[in-house]
Amino acid sequence: MAGLQSGAPTPVNIVAHGQSRVLEVAFSDGATFRIPFELMRIYSPSAEVQGHGPGQEVLQTGKREVELVGLQPVGNYAVQPTFSDGHDSGIYSWDLLYELGAREAQLWAEYEARLAAAGVDRDAPMPEKGGHACGSH
């Protein structure tokens, strides 16, 4: 999902709403999205969530109440959020934020299908991390 398309819309305003747990992003093409922190967290582009290749994704659970505790710019192309569960390794390009906003309903449906297929509840705690030594965690 991540990437940076030439000529793609760029943010003109970004506001984190702590109480409603959404990141409001207004783009240069006039689109405005209110992206839930939970959606951002479960679709983090980090290797910790996406794995190192197809089929290595780690299903995220227990993120409904996650909060955004920091948001740092990364050059002129992305932001790097820090979430209340300690996750801070995902870099969200403008393209990814736009996609999360534009495809929110579809992404939620895909997430719910993955939860059902795994027989896991959205609010289940994440299992303990194993001994993975790639350095991306």
Secondary-structure blueprint of this entry?
Blueprint: E1 11-17, E2 22-27, E3 32-36, H1 37-42, H2 47-50, E4 68-74, E5 78-83, E6 92-93, H3 94-102, H4 104-118
Antiparallel strand pairs: 1-2, 2-3, 4-5, 5-6
Key features of this structure:
4 helices; globular; 137 residues; disordered C terminus; NE0471 N-terminal domain-like; 3-stranded antiparallel β-sheet
Structure characterization notes:
It is a single chain. The protein has 137 residues and is an alpha+beta fold. Helix content is 25%, strand content 24%. Strands 1-2-3 form a three-stranded antiparallel sheet. The relative contact order is 0.21.
Q: According to CATH, what is the class?
A: Alpha Beta
Q: How many beta strands in the DSSP annotation?
A: 6
Order of secondary-structure elements: EEEHHEEEHH
Percentage of residues in helical conformation: 10-25%
Q: What is the name of the CATH topology?
A: NE0471 N-terminal domain-like
How many helices? Answer: 4
Based on helices, strands and strand pairing, what is the structural class?
A: alpha+beta
Total domains, how many? 1
Largest sheet: 3 strands, antiparallel
Main sheet: strand order: 1-2-3
Q: Which regions have little confidence, pLDDT < 50, spanning 5+ residues?
A: 131-137
Q: In percent, how much strand structure appears in the residues?
A: 15-25%
Termini gap: 20 Å
Radius of gyration equals 15 Å
Named at the architecture level, the CATH assignment is 2-Layer Sandwich
* Overall pLDDT level: 90
